[in-house]
Design a protein that fits this description.
single chain; about 150 residues; alpha+beta; Nuclear Transport Factor 2, Chain: A; 6 strands; about 30% helix; about 45% strand
Length: about 150
């Protein structure tokens, strides 16, 4: 259950550390193509918005999306954080990504773009991803988030 006490700088720092650890674990699971571990970081009502594809809503839809990606040889190469902000019940990270895409008829290609992850406190006390947005291209907004 969310805590109704006011956030302090120390509590926000701890939240940031906690979510940064979860982000690192999610990236490690992605790189290892460990779908079950990846899915444990998503809230049941998550919305995943990959670049140039329809949004995937819910964990089952995300499972199908990543099963196809892994079967097609999509591999995460790098996830670089350009910014992170947290409040009492939400944390947002944004940055850039690079992934390799295998092609049956030739050399793999690399795709680069930007992403934003939103983590929210769930009723069980865990922070889980409620929104993951990708865009292709080198655009990555700079500057602080505004809530």
């Amino acid at each position: 259950m969310p805590d109704n006490r006011r956030a302090t700088p120390e509590s926000l720092r701890r939240l940031g550390d906690r979510v940064r650890t979860q982000i690192a674990d999610l990236v490690a699971a992605y790189r290892a193509a460990d779908l079950q571990a990846m899915l444990s970081y998503f809230a049941p009502d998550v919305v995943f918005m990959p670049a140039d594809r329809p949004a995937a809503r819910g964990v089952a839809a995300i499972r199908r999306y990543f099963e196809r990606n892994f079967a097609n040889g999509v591999e995460l190469i790098a996830l670089h954080s350009d910014g992170f902000v947290s409040a009492e019940e939400v944390a947002v990270q944004r940055g850039t990504y690079t992934q390799r895409i295998a092609h049956a008829d030739g050399e793999p290609t690399e795709e680069r773009g930007s992403y934003e992850l939103t983590w929210r406190l769930q009723d069980d006390g865990q922070y889980r991803v409620t929104s993951w947005i990708f865009t292709r291209g080198d655009y990555a907004p700079k500057g602080p988030h505004r809530f």
